[in-house]
Amino acid sequence: MLQLTRLIKIVGAIARYRLDDLVEIDRLPFPARVLMRLLPWRYFIKNTEPRAIRLRKGLESLGPIFIKFGQILSTRRDLLPDDISDELARLQDRVEPFPAADAVTIIEKSLHAPVSELFDRFDHEPMASASIAQVHGARLHSGEEVVVKVIRPGIEKVIRKDIRLMYGFSRLLITLIREAKRLRPMEVVRDYEKTILDELDLLREAANTSQLRRNFISSPLLFVPQVYWDFCKPSVMVMERIYGVPVADTETLKANGTDMKKLAERGVEIFFTQVFRDRFFHADMHPGNIFVDITDPSEPRYIGIDCGIVGTLEPEDQYYLACNLLAFFKRDYRKVAQLHVDSGWVPSHTVVGELEAAIRTVCEPIFERPLKDISFGHLLVRLFQVARRFEMEVQPQLVLLEKTLLNVEGLGRQLYPDLDLWNTAQPYLEKWMKDQVSPCGISRSVRDNVPDWLLSAPNMARNALHSVKQISEHQQKLMAMHNRADKQSGKLKWLGGVLVLLAAAVLVFPEWSTQIPWQGVIMGGVGGWLLTR
Ligand SMILES: Nc1ncnc2c1ncn2[C@@H]1O[C@H](COP(=O)(O)OP(=O)(O)OP(=O)(O)O)[C@@H](O)[C@H]1O
């Protein structure tokens, strides 16, 4: 019943914001075209606002889960046109807070103690309320000021139901409009499902926060609040309270004499450190999650919160990124193409020259601009688009990285419009490359891997024996098949020989053709051959 009400609400939003207009009817197959023309609201609802704004408003009207979906969708620039991505990126989940009494119940149930016992002070008025969680201020008995993040009650059920509906819509879309496959609606929903369900587990967020804090523990670039593990459960998380200026509040930052150039460059440095040193990056870098500590405005330090979404990279991904970025900026498209083939990102049958030409077509216009105006993020977006045409399955972690890079760039340029991203990033990449191939780097890699190799040695021996056994079994099977094929070809030769002899005899003595019982000869031949198989 709830599902039906939801469905009616969704159809209502489609009608009100004329979201059906986002589809080009003339390009649809005949039955879908008829169906679309039969939609009743086409004839009495007009909405002349730009399509991107209508889509944003439609999602907003459907509430927090769809807003979150829109936010995640906005990051798929590899699939969506720019106007839609830009507009969806403006979606903000301003959500009504839920009653503090509900928050208290969840906290007490999770931590098995009354709030008054758990905290010295608990602020019933929430500090912030978003789609998934609500944040309350509090003080521990030991005196530390903290914030308590609580998952919205009943939200998981709503999310799971909405996701089922989204899958249903995606299937319908693909069935009705074959072209829609290009937008990969099922993949987009799957992406969303994973991200949002991960965000529901605050233990996961707490673990990510701890890891990021450890990675930057003595860094002047980034501060990450401490997690209080004794107060963390899947629906409740308690962490150190931070005090900083929201990064979007550039007026306050400037009024306090913050070194904006340094701030912008530090953002890029943090990103490249996370990617090329730690292979672990905060992947939800929207301005609401970033604050600045301006205790010393000439040395501004970032403060990062909300580590619900993080990305991790495999060493191969890291290598791929570094090599590609370096080759790109040297405009060595052949190398970029070759790297794609060598690393198996595109199938081995790919013609390197063709991939090289496609990459050149995409990149040359971008490099027309001065280096400082080039967007790394857009470059990656375009590269992935090309790679997809060449059957490269773009890994989700790379899509996450591309989205983060776009955020970091956007933020950096907002803070300091002349930010030269390449100049800031190049030393990191080149240093990383040098490290990898230096004797130190190689010995470090060997040292890191030796314990694993030693531990897996007994297994390796067993696996090797197993493989040898399997190979010899396969060989025996192949030999047997080979012998049978030999025998059969011998029999076929024998049968062929008899038939050739008979044919020759008929040619020499044509009168025999009427005397020979042909059916008998053929049946006898085939029967004899089968019996001797
Ligand atoms: N450690 C903290 N100290 C001070 N304020 C905090 C802290 N953590 C969160 N907040 C406040 O609460 C707000 C929401 O927190 P957070 O981003 O973690 O929640 P969320 O539900 O994941 O929100 P969203 O998903 O929309 O980013 C922040 O924008 C900030 O104002």
UniProtKB/TrEMBL annotation:
<protein>
    <recommendedName>
        <fullName>Probable protein kinase UbiB</fullName>
        <ecNumber>2.7.-.-</ecNumber>
    </recommendedName>
</protein>
<dbReference type="Pfam" id="PF03109">
    <property type="entry name" value="ABC1"/>
</dbReference>
<keyword id="KW-0547">Nucleotide-binding</keyword>
<feature type="binding site">
    <location>
        <begin position="127"/>
        <end position="135"/>
    </location>
    <ligand>
        <name>ATP</name>
    </ligand>
</feature>
<dbReference type="GO" id="GO:0005524">
    <property type="term" value="F:ATP binding"/>
</dbReference>
<keyword id="KW-0831">Ubiquinone biosynthesis</keyword>
<dbReference type="InterPro" id="IPR011009">
    <property type="entry name" value="Kinase-like_dom_sf"/>
</dbReference>
<comment type="similarity">
    <text>Belongs to the ABC1 family. UbiB subfamily.</text>
</comment>
<keyword id="KW-0808">Transferase</keyword>
<keyword id="KW-0997">Cell inner membrane</keyword>
<dbReference type="InterPro" id="IPR045308">
    <property type="entry name" value="UbiB_bact"/>
</dbReference>
<keyword id="KW-1133">Transmembrane helix</keyword>
<feature type="active site" description="Proton acceptor">
    <location>
        <position position="284"/>
    </location>
</feature>
<dbReference type="InterPro" id="IPR010232">
    <property type="entry name" value="UbiB"/>
</dbReference>
<dbReference type="GO" id="GO:0006744">
    <property type="term" value="P:ubiquinone biosynthetic process"/>
</dbReference>
<dbReference type="InterPro" id="IPR050154">
    <property type="entry name" value="UbiB_kinase"/>
</dbReference>
<comment type="pathway">
    <text>Cofactor biosynthesis; ubiquinone biosynthesis [regulation].</text>
</comment>
<feature type="binding site">
    <location>
        <position position="149"/>
    </location>
    <ligand>
        <name>ATP</name>
    </ligand>
</feature>
<keyword id="KW-0830">Ubiquinone</keyword>
<keyword id="KW-0418">Kinase</keyword>
<dbReference type="GO" id="GO:0004672">
    <property type="term" value="F:protein kinase activity"/>
</dbReference>
<keyword id="KW-0812">Transmembrane</keyword>
<dbReference type="InterPro" id="IPR004147">
    <property type="entry name" value="ABC1_dom"/>
</dbReference>
<keyword id="KW-0067">ATP-binding</keyword>
<dbReference type="GO" id="GO:0005886">
    <property type="term" value="C:plasma membrane"/>
</dbReference>
<keyword id="KW-1003">Cell membrane</keyword>
<comment type="function">
    <text>Is probably a protein kinase regulator of UbiI activity which is involved in aerobic coenzyme Q (ubiquinone) biosynthesis.</text>
</comment>
<comment type="similarity">
    <text>Belongs to the protein kinase superfamily. ADCK protein kinase family.</text>
</comment>
<keyword id="KW-0472">Membrane</keyword>
<feature type="domain" description="ABC1 atypical kinase-like">
    <location>
        <begin position="90"/>
        <end position="339"/>
    </location>
</feature>
<dbReference type="GO" id="GO:0010795">
    <property type="term" value="P:regulation of ubiquinone biosynthetic process"/>
</dbReference>
